[in-house]
């Protein structure tokens, strides 16, 4: 064994490595790993977010908190993308600066207002996310975006915590047209009002009565999408009750405030927005008010026919007893237009 050890020592003499060489090796390995990480990071899709802020009326009351959430939380909550976030006050910029910034952005965020017109300078297949005030929607920016082959998403304030005008909304609805369930955040338009209405208001309420039978009178105002074509209760609340002037008057100029729940809702919207960037825009089929209402009426009538057929078999057993089946008489379709 001693002879074998001596032979091995002659074949492989000890090597002395300077300490600075070891440090260089460590540095080289670290640089290699860092570059490998950068290359891996570069493979993630980049999402450039531009947040348009306002200084007067219709503002995000806690704008700094929103900016911080977008810059620090989005990369954690949606790590599949590389996020680049900038905020801007378009009103303080020159025209060429506005154009450059809008063209840079993949996703433009902003509260309902003229600042969102800068979407005309964005690239096709970009995304616009509109923040809406309490129980509010208008279609102009949605139509602008879609006409330019861009995607449109919305977030809407639906709770008293995200607005500064909640008490005013309640005060401006003295007739009690609507009932708000704070626990479930659902809304019900008060059906007892039909006894106090007359003329055109009565006809409008009959329209509402027909529509709301589809969901038992309760509805929840959507926070994460445009509601103009799929929330019948939202339609009627906005156009056919005393809320109309409030919704499109002082309330239109109110601020929004983001709390934990609002950030959770916004995360859902941002995920959809990020997924849509760069994808081909396919417009959806939009039905007119009359077409949507006619479909609702038809569905109700078919349901009533089914109920009548089911009741026929038991009618013979109930002869002489008062009927409990509900009878509904609807006005002509052209008379039911708000």
What does this molecule look like?
The protein is of the alpha/beta class and 338 residues long. Helices cover 43% and strands 12% of the residues. The chain has 11 helices and 8 strands. The protein has helices at residues 2-11, 19-42, 63-77, 95-104, 140-147, 166-171, 199-212, 232-239, 243-247, 260-276, 289-315, and strands spanning 46-52, 82-88, 107-111, 127-132, 151-156, 178-181, 186-189, 218-219. The protein has a 5-stranded parallel sheet, with helices on both faces. A 3-stranded antiparallel sheet has the order 6-7-8, covered by helices on one side. Strand 6 and strand 7 form a beta hairpin. It is elongated. Residues 321-338 have low confidence and may be disordered.
Short description:
The protein has helices spanning 2-11, 19-42, 63-77, 95-104, 140-147, 166-171, 199-212, 232-239, 243-247, 260-276, 289-315; strands at 46-52, 82-88, 107-111, 127-132, 151-156, 178-181, 186-189, 218-219.
Distance N to C terminus: 105 Å
Largest sheet: 5 strands, parallel
Structural Rg = 31 Å
Residue ranges: pLDDT <50 for 5 or more in a row? 321-338
Estimated share of beta-strand residues: 5-15%
Q: Which structural class should the secondary elements be placed in?
A: alpha/beta
Number of helices: 11
Q: What sequence of helices (H) and strands (E) makes up the elements?
A: HHEHEHEEHEHEEHEHHHH
The level of helicity is 40-55%
Q: Please tell me the overall pLDDT.
A: 76
Shape: elongated
